[in-house]
């Protein structure tokens, strides 16, 4: 690995200043994507800024009708959180299914969302729950955050600090694993608000997370998975050794139906 | 910038203080600096789990952590695992159930399973298989490893 300078700031301001002081800076959260990428030489920062010593970035809390999750909350923290399991059960399921136990003990929600891997699970929850993304500089709505393959609205030196989720009536996540990597070949996050507005967000199928408007309209009108149209508009489906574009498109329909069906069933059991 | 960073940690109970290069990986530090070579590096891509250690009680892959980030933590490697009742139960169960063949993956498996049986209770065989998905064994077919997990679990529950 190419040598670099490791900096361990203790505040957001210190971290931001450290970032701007070097042209090839890189923030480090849990490192579960960054460190393997650095080993491969795909990124070679001259300065790595570890965010783990900044206090207050990993809290999970409820304020009124919203849940806040700090950017440095690890997947295991989110998966085990009683607040998440009560109010954002889809997010808890999602976090508990990322990578493996060792990876969940290090990887963070902020790192995953900032990286915006096209097969990562978390972006679908952020978009599927219409979360607000908080940074050291501003707040960004989910609809404006994910711009493309590994590309986000984050500016040079901007860092994620946390996420705010309005508590939905229900949420669920279904993932079809790519068998070797455990990433999502297709993952679907569904949520429904108290006024019965649905969101269906898909990861893994395309170069970036997207919503399936056709399905959402059917659900908003009181329909179910059986009423989903055969066709839907989306960005171009990915096609690779793990699955053709047609296969992924088929999976989007199957996994979306499964996710919605599961959520409807669990909500019916609650009442 | 200084070329080295001073790190202090406890490794298997013993206080350690060393100067390390900024980019040194924790696995390299434990094997090459501390000479605790029970830690194995298999894939070096955080897939195989052979380098699993406990860091403040969490099972983590030491090939994917920079050594300076272990500053202030308490680390357990295979060399120190038998110091706790859970560690002893897991090591004994792997021995009695023959939960290994070549042994390369075993230190990582043992530490991963120590975390598992410490933090969870009454898992069944299917859950045990899922719980060790972060560790790869190319010899056993996992059957005896799963038996060892079940034995360690009931041993600890009965204790």
Question: How would you describe the overall organization of this protein?
Answer:
Chain A contains 10 helices and 14 strands. Chain A is α+β, with helices and mostly antiparallel strands. In chain A, the strands form 4 sheets. In chain A, strands 4-5-10-6-7 form a 5-stranded antiparallel beta sheet. In chain A, strands 11-12-13-14 form a 4-stranded antiparallel beta sheet, sandwiched between helices. A 3-stranded parallel beta sheet of chain A has the order 1-3-2, with helices on one face. In chain A, a hairpin with a 6-residue loop joins strand 11 and strand 12. The radius of gyration of chain A is 18 Å and the shape is globular. Chain B has about 160 residues and is α+β, with helices and mostly antiparallel strands. Chain B has 5 helices and 5 strands, in the order E-E-H-E-E-E-H-H-H-H. In chain B, strands 2-1-5-3-4 form a 5-stranded mixed beta sheet, with helices on one face. In chain B, strand 3 and strand 4 form a beta hairpin. The termini of chain B are far apart. The relative contact order of chain B is 0.16.
Can you summarize this structure?
Chain A is α+β, with helices and mostly antiparallel strands and 271 residues long. Chain A has helices spanning 12-20, 34-39, 75-80, 82-87, 89-96, 101-104, 109-115, 122-128, 213-220, 245-270; strands at 5-7, 25-28, 47-50, 60-63, 66-70, 132-135, 139-141, 146-148, 151-152, 160-166, 170-177, 184-192, 198-203, 210-211.
Note the overall shape of chain B. Answer: globular
Q: Which percent band covers the strand fraction of chain A?
A: 15-25%
User: Main sheet of chain A?
Assistant: 5 strands, antiparallel
Strand proportion of chain B: 15-25%
**Mean pLDDT level of chain B:** 96
Q: How far apart lie the N and C ends of chain A?
A: 56 Å
N/C terminus separation of chain B: 52 Å
Radius of gyration of chain A: 18 Å
């Amino acid at each position: 690995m190419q040598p670099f300078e490791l900096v361990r700031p203790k505040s957001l301001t210190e971290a931001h200043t450290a970032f701007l002081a070097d042209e090839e800076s890189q923030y480090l959260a849990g490192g579960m994507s960054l460190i393997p990428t650095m080993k491969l030489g795909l990124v070679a920062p001259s300065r790595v800024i570890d965010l783990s010593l900044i206090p207050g970035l990993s809290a999970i809390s409820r304020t009124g009708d919203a849940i806040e999750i700090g950017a440095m909350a690890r997947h295991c923290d989110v998966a085990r959180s009683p607040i998440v399991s009560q109010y954002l059960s889809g997010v808890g399921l999602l976090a508990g299914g990322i990578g493996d136990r060792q990876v969940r003990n290090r990887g963070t929600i902020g790192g995953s969302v900032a990286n915006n891997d096209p097969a990562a699970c978390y972006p679908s929850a952020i978009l599927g729950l219409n979360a607000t993304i908080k940074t050291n500089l501003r707040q960004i709505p989910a609809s404006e955050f994910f711009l493309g393959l590994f590309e986000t609205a984050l500016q040079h030196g901007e860092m994620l600090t946390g996420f705010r989720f309005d508590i939905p009536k229900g949420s669920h996540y279904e993932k079809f694993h790519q068998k070797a990597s455990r990433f999502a070949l297709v993952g679907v996050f569904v949520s429904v608000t108290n006024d019965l507005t649905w969101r269906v967000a898909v990861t893994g199928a395309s170069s970036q997370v997207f919503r399936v408007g056709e399905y959402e309209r059917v659900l908003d009108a009181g329909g179910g998975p059986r009423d989903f149209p055969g066709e839907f508009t989306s960005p171009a489906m990915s096609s690779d050794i793990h699955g053709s574009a047609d296969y992924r498109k088929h999976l989007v329909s199957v996994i979306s139906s499964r996710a919605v069906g599961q959520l409807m069933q669990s909500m019916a059991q609650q009442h | 910038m200084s070329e080295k960073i001073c790190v202090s940690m406890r490794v298997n109970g013993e206080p350690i203080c060393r100067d390390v290069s900024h980019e040194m990986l924790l696995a390299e530090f434990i094997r090459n600096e501390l000479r605790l070579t029970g830690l194995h590096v298999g894939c070096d891509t955080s897939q195989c789990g052979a380098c699993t250690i406990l860091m403040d009680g969490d099972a983590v892959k030491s090939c994917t952590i920079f050594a300076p980030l272990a500053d202030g933590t308490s680390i357990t490697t295979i060399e120190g695992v038998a110091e706790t009742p859970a560690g002893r139960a897991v090591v004994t169960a792997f021995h009695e159930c023959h939960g290994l063949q070549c042994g390369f993956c075993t230190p990582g498996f043992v530490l991963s399973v120590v975390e598992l049986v410490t933090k969870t209770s009454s898992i069944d065989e299917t859950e045990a298989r899922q719980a060790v998905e972060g560790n790869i064994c190319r010899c056993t077919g996992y059957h005896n490893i799963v038996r060892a997990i079940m034995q360690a679990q009931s041993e600890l529950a009965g204790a």
